[in-house]
Specification:
Blueprint lengths: L1 E4 L4 H5 L5 E4 L10 E5 L13 E14 L5 H6 L7 H12 L6 E9 L11 H5 L14 H4 L3 E3 L6 E3 L6 E4 L10 E5 L13 H5 L2 E5 L12 E3 L2 H16 L1
Parallel strand pairs: 1-3
Antiparallel strand pairs: 2-5, 3-4, 4-5, 6-7, 8-9, 8-11, 9-10
The structure holds zinc ion (2 copies).
The site of one zinc ion has 8 residues, from helix 7.
């Protein structure tokens, strides 16, 4: 997502009274483009972070002369107290341009979570989530929980779609599958196979470690691990083999 900065009209973006901007560039924008409105995107000093204000979806883009602005558009620009002539003077001073210059007029709508309607937090704006079954939609972290599971070792949420290479088995269904961390050798790997299939299923799991004390599978006999916990196990096992 591209950032667009509003250093002079930060308050109007925050309170959402501004829905139009005029820029000298930005000719490449198209209706439907999604942008992150920031306080300041460029010229950040070392250690300074981008302040994200809102996510916006472009509704229309057109080129027109700067001095073609109407009183109605001064309101949409977030400066209702200025008349068109005053707006033009202010713009020319800030951008060092002539009143007859062509500008890109961009109009947008504000985008909130598509599921619950809550505005996004700065953190959510920085790494927005889209549901796998509806990639055009943007949803908040809480609504995205539906597509995640809590890692049974560290409790961090992880994408449902990741590949499992290790699982935690917490209940012993038979003596061949005592509780522990198992490497998945193939699918399916469930510890509760249909009657008579035990050997077939169990062959797909290899016990590699004891269960860590803090395993929480929320009452299930098997628990999924987040990618970083899986990587830790893979690295630990590779390390122990080298020794
Ligand atoms: Zn939501
Ligand atoms: Zn984890």
């Amino acid at each position: 997502m591209r950032n667009i900065s509003f250093s002079l009209t930060t308050a109007q973006i925050r309170n959402r009274t501004k829905t139009v901007t005029r820029r000298l560039g930005w000719r490449f924008l198209k209706p439907g483009d999604v942008l992150c409105a920031c306080e300041k995107c460029q010229g950040l000093k070392k250690g300074e972070t981008v302040h994200r204000l809102a996510i916006v979806r472009v509704l229309s883009v057109r080129r027109e002369r700067l001095d073609a602005i109407t009183p109605g558009d001064c309101v949409k620009e977030g400066v209702p107290d200025l008349c068109p002539a005053e707006f033009v003077v202010m713009f020319c001073r800030a951008m060092r341009c002539r009143r007859s210059v062509d500008v890109t007029r961009i109009e947008w709508e504000y985008v909130d979570c598509n599921r619950c309607g809550r505005p996004f937090t700065e953190e959510e704006m920085a790494s927005p989530h889209s549901p796998p079954d509806w990639p055009g939609e943007m949803i908040c972290d809480e609504c995205y929980r539906e597509y995640e599971f809590p890692c049974c070792l560290c409790g961090e949420y992880e994408d449902d779609g990741i590949a499992d290479t290790f699982v935690a088995v917490t209940e012993a269904y038979d003596k061949e599958l005592p509780p522990g961390i198992y490497r998945i050798l193939g699918n399916p790997f469930y510890p509760t196979p249909p009657l008579g299939c035990e050997t077939l299923f169990n062959r797909n799991l290899e016990r590699v470690a004891d269960l860590p004390g803090h395993t929480d599978t929320q009452g299930f006999a098997i628990g999924r691990l987040c990618l970083s916990c899986q990587r830790e196990f893979a690295a630990g096992l590779a390390g122990s083999k080298d020794r």
